[in-house]
Design brief:
Layout (H helix, E strand, L loop, with lengths): L7 E2 L6 E2 L2 H12 L4 E2 L6 E2 L2 H12 L5 E2 L7 E2 L2 H8 L9 E2 L6 E2 L2 H8 L8
Antiparallel strand pairs: 1-2, 3-4, 5-6, 7-8
């Protein structure tokens, strides 16, 4: 007999969560309340997990996740690895910079490029 599991839905996005506590933690990302500060650089985060990931990646330079397809790439989070793996086997570059003609497979890479020092102030 399949018992339906109660899910908690975010009112701002399509997110669903297994309990109210997880939903409440998630809701902080929409309110922009950042109550967790880095002790090294004072950068602020909505979630303790974001602070933890930042500290390990930026200040400790720990990158425990490796790409199994190119092995030379290492990443500080599973999310970054997931984004990277999406670039393998894709020749389609849908994002093109109008300022320098650089092209990108994923939107996140394109946005990072636009916000980089290379195009700052243009």
């Amino acid at each position: 007999m399949d018992e339906e599991i109660e899910r908690y839905n975010c009112q701002y996005c399509m997110g669903t969560f297994k309990d109210r506590r997880c939903l409440n933690i998630h809701l902080l990302t929409h309110t922009n309340i950042k109550q967790h500060s880095c002790s090294k650089c004072n950068r602020k985060f909505t979630q303790k997990a974001g602070l933890y990931t930042h500290f390990r990646a930026v200040h400790l330079r720990i990158k425990p996740y490796s790409c199994s397809l190119c092995s030379s790439q290492k990443f500080s989070s599973k999310y970054e690895l997931h984004l990277h793996i999406g670039t393998h086997g894709k020749d389609e570059r849908h994002y093109r910079c109008q300022m320098c003609a650089a092209t990108f497979v994923q939107k996140i890479g394109f946005l990072k490029h636009l916000n980089s020092a290379r195009h700052a102030g243009r």
